[in-house]
Write a structure and sequence with these properties.
This protein is an alpha/beta fold. It contains 17 helices and eleven strands.
């Protein structure tokens, strides 16, 4: 037991974690309210080590936003545009294929694709882009759409959510993204994302996908107008669905970015709050294997530290990110594989390249293995060059 835990008032929670007793909502709130970040982090680090051992992962992926036009106007959103806006965009399927082809040449294994709720694109556009992208390489994993997009597509297709998901699955969809969860509490949702799907609808889409054999991630957007109790409530609904379906592969805590939107919050969540939120997520979500430190929102330096506060994943190379950067994120557009491997190695973990389902693609057991892998350094250089063209 670490010194930090031994002399902490949170010692009883550590004892619960050690014997595998589930933390209550009140326990989670105590952790969120604690100023003893070292003790919270040490307990989470213990739980992380016991769950996944010494490995920490990253993925070679590329984001594609097919469009930022959206029929909704969530108050917190800096990404959505109307057709009258000069900086709105939509990609043709050929443009998406071109971006995917370039990324495949860099060795990516996953495309992560989301967009706004487009006012006029037909359902066939979504089915056709899945098929076109899958045809490039059947090994390319397509992680696409948030829950609200699925509801929008079901409305377009005039089909049930299940039928819509089945059709998308047949076209190549392999995982849903976790975006759009925000904070589930109704009053908070109304304040930041009026008009968006309810918590129940978000969970219904993921439940339906899981029952069809699909997997997905889930998220929480924190650090805006919500209370700490709202975060616990949010996590409790995710934990309950995971108990029911076991369909979530991982959880991603998303620190709110305050620029260019209508929410009166001027300062993003502090580093302290981000680390503590990741640690509490690891401890409370005891039925989740993987907790991601999202470098786009946190910056790679803090995400690296989060590897000692319960996180076991740094997310991916990404290559081109719009949503967080339009909201003021100061992180770069991409990370090279070499940078993520170095960050993981320095944190004392064994770097593991993973696929969409967090299965190992390649492990870097020693530093010598990295040096002896010429494709890795080439890939890093190509990715760096790609920044100019993204
Ligand atoms: S958060 Fe999503 S649904 Fe809401 S306005 Fe932005 S793009 Fe549209």
């Amino acid at each position: 037991m670490s010194f930090a835990i031994q002399h902490s008032t949170l010692r009883d929670l550590y004892d619960k974690v050690v014997v595998g007793e589930r933390l209550s909502d009140a326990d989670a709130l105590r952790l969120f309210e604690s100023k003893d970040i070292n003790a919270v982090g040490a307990i989470a680090d213990f739980a992380r080590q016991r769950k996944v051992g010494n490995r920490a992962s990253y993925i070679l992926n590329r984001y594609i936003n097919y469009s930022n036009y959206c029929i909704l106007s969530c108050q917190f959103c800096s990404f959505a545009r109307k057709k009258r806006d000069a900086d709105g965009f939509e990609l043709t399927i050929e443009q998406m294929v071109q971006k995917a082809r370039e990324a495949l040449a860099l060795g990516i294994t996953e495309l992560h694709i989301v967009g706004g709720l487009h006012p006029s694109l037909p359902f066939s556009y979504y089915v056709d882009f899945l098929k076109a992208l899958k045809a490039l390489d059947p090994r390319l994993q397509l992680k696409c759409f948030t829950a609200i997009e699925i509801l929008h597509l079901a409305w377009l297709a005039k089909k049930s959510v299940e039928e819509t998901l089945l059709e998308l699955k047949a076209a190549g969809l392999e995982s849903l993204t976790g975006g759009g969860a925000e904070i589930f509490r109704k009053e908070v949702r109304h304040a930041i994302a009026r008009g968006k799907e309810s918590a129940e609808e978000y969970l219904t889409v993921h439940r339906a996908w899981h029952r069809l054999g699909g997997r997905s991630t889930c998220t929480m957007l924190f650090g805006h107008v919500e209370k700490l109790e709202d975060r616990v409530h949010h996590l409790s609904l995710l934990r309950a669905l995971q108990d029911e379906t076991h369909g979530f592969t991982g959880f991603v805590a998303l620190p709110y970015q305050p620029e260019n939107n209508d929410i009166p919050v001027r300062v993003p969540p502090t580093g302290f709050d981000q680390l503590r939120t990741i640690a509490v997520s690891r401890l409370y979500l005891d039925n989740f294997d993987h907790i991601t430190a999202y470098w786009v929102g946190m910056g790679l330096k803090l995400a690296q530290v989060a590897l000692s506060y319960g996180a076991d994943d740094l997310h991916g190379t990404i290559v081109e990110e719009h949503i967080f950067h339009m909201a003021g994120a100061k992180s770069p557009q991409l990370q090279t594989e070499a940078e993520m491997v170095k960050a993981i190695r320095e944190a004392g973990r064994t770097p593991v390249q993973r696929n969409t389902f967090y299965e190992a693609v390649r492990e870097w057991p020693t530093e010598a293995a990295e040096v002896a892998a010429p494709t890795n350094s080439v890939k890093s250089k190509v990715l760096e060059r790609n920044l100019a063209t993204a």
